[in-house]
Amino acid sequence: MAIIERPATVPAFVGDASASPPALVTPTAALGAFKRPVSTTGWKSWVFTVDHKKLGLMYGAVSLFFFLVGGLEALLIRLQLAAPDNTVLSADLYNQMFTMHATTMVFLFVMPMAAAFANYFLPLQVGARDVAFPRINALGFWLFLFGGIFLNTSWVLGGAADGGWFMYSPNSSPLFSPSHGIDFWVLGLQITGIASLVGAINLIVTIINMRAPGMSLMRMPVFAWMQLVTQFLLLFAMPVITVALFLLSFQRNFGAAFFDVEKGADPLLWQHLFWIFGHPEVYIIILPSFGIISEVLPTFSRKPLFGYKFVVFSGAAIGTVGWGVWAHHMFASGLGPVSVAVFSAATMLVAIPTGVKICNWTLTLWGGKLWFTTAMNFAIGVIVLFTIGGLSGVTHASAPADTQQTDTYHIVAHFHYVIVGGAVMGLFAGFYYWWPKMFGKLLSERLGKWNFWLMFFGVNLTFAPMHILGMQGQPRRMVVWPKKLTGEGFFNLGFWNQVATVGSFTIALGVLIFVINIFVTAKKVEKAPLDPWDARTLEWMTASPPKEHNFDSIPTVHALDEFFHRKYEEVDTEDGPRLVRVKSAEQILAEEEAAGDAHIHLPSPSYWPIVLAFSLPVIAYGVIFNLMLSVVGAGIMILGLFGWVLEPSVADDSDYDPPAEGSGPSKELASIG
Amino acid sequence: MFTTGSKLFFGATALSVACAVVFAASTGGPTGIMGTVGLLSLAIVFGFLAGINFFNADGNVPGMQQGAEYTAAAAQPPVGSSMWPLVAAVGVAGLVVGAVSTPVVFKVSIVVVLAATAEWMVQGWSERASADAQYNAGVRKRMLHPLEFPILGALGLGAVVYAFSRIMLSVDKESTPWVFMVIGALIAVGAFVFAGRRNASRSTIVGICTVGAVALLGAGVASAVQGQRTIEEHPTTSGSALCLEGGTEVEIDDHASQDVSAKSSVIANIFLQSNDVVIARIPGFTDPEDNFSTITVPRSADVGIRFHNDSSSPQRITARLGTFGDAAEVVMCTTVVNPGKEAFLSFKIPKTNAASSTPLELVIPGVEGQQIAIVVP
Amino acid sequence: MEQSEAMVSTREGQFAGRRRLVGLAAGVGLVLAGCAKNAPQDTFQPAGSNAREIDGLQRELFYVSGIVGLIVFAAILYAIIKFKDRGQDIPEQSHGNPKLEILLTILPAIILAVVAVPSVAAVFKLDKKDNDCVINVTGQQWWWEYDYVQGSTCGGVEITKSIVTSGELVIPAHTDVLLRITSRDVIHSYWIPRLNGKRDAVPGRLHTLRMQADQAGIYTGQCTEFCGLSHARMRQAAVALEAADFQTWVTNQTADYVAPEADTLAATGEATFVAQCSRCHQVNDLLSPDGTPVLAEPDLYVVSGAAPNLSKLMTRTAFAGWTFDLISAECRDKLWNAPPDEFGALYLQGVTPECFDEANLRTWLRNAPAMKPMYADPTKLASTGGKTRGMPNLNLTEDQIDELIAYMLERK
């Protein structure tokens, strides 16, 4: 049995040791104004938690909420486009809607949902008890939540941002967008940007420094690898967008002229800055899902990932080459033929490591023993849909072709195949795969199949026709399309617009079934088996849901897919070597518990991350409405910072309730919260 | 129980609140609000410190507690020296000096005195926080490092930037790139050395950094005292009397138009040829015979032209952009351009040339009879 | 249609795998059959050399992508059928095959090289600038202005006087026309899909785009860089005319102003125009009652500092960012579908009384911002110092509107 122990808080006794016990002035008492919270139940245990698993769940829940918000925006857009010269949305509202749809889906759903999985599973996968900087982890989550709320309050405070998520200057200047929407957008993204940045540093340090003994980098699960690449991309991409947003913010709020043509600036500066961030962002979005399906496919194929090293290095290669292709978003901007040719060729280079991944996934299936669970369905769905998205991507990597395709629905089709078909479906594979680990219950497979097929059909129904719409001349970001440009025949562009709208509702139905599935599963009493998928990696070597300290004893890693190799051994038989199951997951867990570490030290919860995070939106509201409010926000921030540095490193023993009578030594019962 | 330390802070809190009330009542307008908020913030900070102090029970251990004679902070040997009395004294002296000389010294001294007071108070309090001297030092650090590091960092960075900018402004124009490269190279070499010798002693590194910092600051101060080199104004916008004359500046900037994107997107290239004939080449009209004496410019659009001086004397190009209504004629020009060099000029003409009482044209002051007419349809 | 058959085979590449995967051949068959016929902005129906160059490249890319997609989907399909769990042993825990891996890395590299070379070649080919006509194109919220450079020749026709027009770009057919594109406010993008790809109009910069039309006809397009509120209603068209027709068009555009006959409704309309519209809209050579020229000063009233020149409004077929038709739907269909040899004559008729769609223009004059969203509410112009973006509601009376329409009908 593991014993949770905190370090002694009693200082060395000064003076005559033989004297009667002195009244000690303990260090924690010296800073007693700032006790650490100790609740293990109730809302306090969530609001002040620094546990990576709780934070991961909160990241997930909030992201899922924003997914529904972003999805609702998408449905409104598709409703507006279901008929010619439609009037569901006004032009102004439509512009806000597509801006916020993209912003919400990218910054408030896909990125934080990937962060949710990273938070929850990275420490488990590398055999750590928490992330490297638990309070910063909590700060990251609260910044994301407050940033997301701040961004969305713009809807009721004079209108949301209306410049498109790319926010091209000079259309984003106050002259052309006088509402506060873009200010909200800029400051909201700054806040969530800090969340991404501190999260990235935290996860990188965790991966580099906190892996279990024996887990060399090349024994690390692919999900952890892809997250590592993603976090490095974030680390370098977020500063770029931060700078760009500051420039825009100063232009809008303090009269700077970074993009003001009349004062000699070149508006293309913004485009370069935005896309130097924006293109790596694409890989930030997709790589975590690549990681997820690289876990799911081997598990349900019962064989290791084909070409592990190639997948890892191609992921790293994507992360590197991804920095040299930003201008392919600007082929029509008038860069001049030399830049265009160079960026066109570089863009095609990205297709090589991406192609490697697709081949490897396919070859992982090859020769396997395939088990088609919902998670597996989603993973195979990712391969298929992402391949379509990738191939249509090649058609506009070619710059001349891109001048026809860019800013049309063909591009919309392309990146939705990549983001919905690739990233989002990958996240869903993750939901179904890891749900029993997170909650101890299996999501209903029956509802899961409905969920998968509706989404799979929905994606194709929505986005496949958009290829045609774009190639036949329907541009993006149009609040209306006129009947006279739809062409003739039954299959005219109006028809395809309607099909896309039907498709979008099909996706919505799929998502609705997922939400229902969550509730149905929550009500279910039946517990999931400890190892429902016969999985391969460390996170399955602990209880479901994992204990607060993750592992009773930190496992020593001997191989890639450590868990699998503990369960199975190769035995020589008459027909040659054969894999035979030697242990069950329960046996392995029991062994680990028996060998549990005696001293497990976990970080205490803290009041201050949420206080510090709260100060930022207050400052941001102040920048928009009244600088006095910013002064108040700065006060809260200083309070948060001081609280942060002044609180004791652990909670004092006396902060906990005394143990019940006869329940053994108090240290065993003491919460590690 | 009100401890000694907390009384000080409670007093300071009350005083700040009182000041805020008085200030709010006596001063109106934005200054009043700003000042009041500032004073209230001060009150909050003092109150905060008072609260910490109050709850921490200071070192005042009740006498009846057994063993208190050993553990009470008062029973501990005195802690080491403190620099704050000295700093505070210097600050007070500075106040006096500043009061009779320059206000800057006075203001800086206020900051010094306040900083020294705060540091002194926190140090004094922390030394009595517990019986453990090491722990007490830790308490002080946790209190003050969050303030000290950012402020000292910003001050240090500011000093470096300021010193460096003074140096760059005082050395003469030809040497600036060399100075820049040498200093950069020195820093890079230093970094390499540090990185290579990880076990170099702390004092060595601190010593080198100190010498570097002192050298930079010293050079900066010296440069500031010496003053800036003469820097020429290059009139490139409207209103300059020079635009319509042929005069030249003392110093000619040949690098005035290095903007690649501007070059790639001009509406016309204007050449002053070696025979003092002015022609316009318009991108898009690719025939070499297409030497225009007229350019067409869309109204109300920001456009750029590039002037190539192929003659043998320094020249500038001047754009006479019309006289609309009662306003004066709009005139813009480039800096003087050396032979064989180029300059870039951007402008915007809001109205059609029919609305102007003077012709819209590009001229070279001093070159007679040569102009490029501007048509604004 | 030829182009839709080509689409079919391309689409097949992209979707065939999925079709088998989901076993819904019928449903996807609809997708495959699925291109609109004669969509006016179809990039698969190039009508000029530049667009044809791109189209050729585009088709090659679709074929290559389609074939690669087919192979990948076939492999996946085979794997999921063949290796389904039927109780077989757990497979060997092999970590891959480096030789195969290297092969699978080199293969896509080769395929991409095959597409990269013609792509790069086409970039430079399309950047050529030699031409027989130069036209300045200026974008602003939310319409395009064209000006034909005074003193230049366009397809052999001399431009004696600046021609400023908007919405419809009239070019000589069979001629390389170079557009010099810039913007007055935000970034726009000029796109006539059947003639060439897009080129952004960036304020402060001048970009070029070459167009050439094989035959007379009308080729529609849209602004494709998001440019704010009425981005969806910023459209344009290129009209290609045979040389003789183009000469006629130029002659008409540069012809002198013809004042309405005295005591007609149109003559009253002229006065109304001077009083209400000429602040922003220029009608060339128009004189005020005291004999001075009436010069529009849109820079005082509009953020972009420009408003469409209305000297020859009725030679165009649509207005307000080429969004609303000046001619009725039948006349429009007739014009759009006219054979090349009849097109020129039909187009040069301009807006005839029988074709005139009065309702559109009337609604517009009654309250323009209600018809096309614009920033013209006088109470909400703080950020622009009172200038509008787009045309404000002028609160004209019905009589004034009658007069203006009568006056405008003669502007051709």
Architecture overview:
- The complex is a heterotrimer of chains A (673), B (377) and C (412).
- With 673 residues, chain A is mainly alpha-helical.
- Chain A is built from 20 helices and 2 strands.
- Residues 1-30 and 659-673 of chain A have low confidence and may be disordered.
- Chain A has helices at 27-30, 42-47, 52-80, 91-125, 134-153, 181-209, 222-254, 268-301, 308-321, 337-365, 374-397, 399-405, 409-439, 445-471, 493-523, 562-567, 585-594, 608-625, 627-646, 666-669; strands at 568-573, 576-581.
- In chain A, helix 4 packs parallel to helix 13 (409-439).
- The two termini of chain A are 18 Å apart.
- The radius of gyration of chain A is 27 Å and the shape is globular.
- Helix content of chain A is 61%, strand content 2%.
- Chain A has 2 domains: 42-523, Cytochrome c oxidase-like, subunit I domain (Cytochrome C Oxidase, Chain A, Up-down Bundle); 544-594, no CATH class.
- In chain A, strands 1-2 form a two-stranded antiparallel sheet.
- Chain B has 377 residues and is α+β, with helices and mostly antiparallel strands.
- Chain B folds into 3 domains: 4-152, no CATH class; 162-226, no CATH class; 241-375, Cupredoxins -  blue copper proteins (Immunoglobulin-like).
- Chain B has helices spanning 4-26, 29-56, 68-71, 84-100, 103-127, 133-170, 176-196, 202-226, 260-264, and strands spanning 268-272, 278-281, 294-296, 303-309, 318-320, 331-333, 342-347, 361-363, 371-375.
- Chain B has a 5-stranded mixed β-sheet with strand order 3-9-8-5-6, with no helix packed on it. A 4-stranded mixed β-sheet of chain B has the order 2-1-4-7, with no helix packed on it.
- With 412 residues, chain C is α+β, with helices and mostly antiparallel strands.
- Chain C has 11 helices and 14 strands.
- Chain C has helices at residues 2-22, 25-32, 49-82, 98-126, 243-253, 265-276, 329-336, 340-348, 358-366, 368-371, 398-409, and strands at residues 133-140, 143-148, 153-154, 157-158, 163-166, 168-172, 177-183, 188-190, 199-201, 207-211, 217-222, 235-241, 318-319, 324-325.
- In chain C, the strands form 5 sheets. In chain C, strands 5-2-1-7-10 form a 5-stranded mixed β-sheet. In chain C, strands 6-12-11 form a 3-stranded mixed β-sheet.
- The longest helix of chain C is centred in the N-terminal third of the chain and has 34 residues, at 49-82.
- Classes of the chains: A mainly alpha (673), B alpha+beta (377), C alpha+beta (412).
- Chains A and B meet through helix 1 and helix 19 of A and helix 2, helix 3, helix 6 and helix 9 of B.
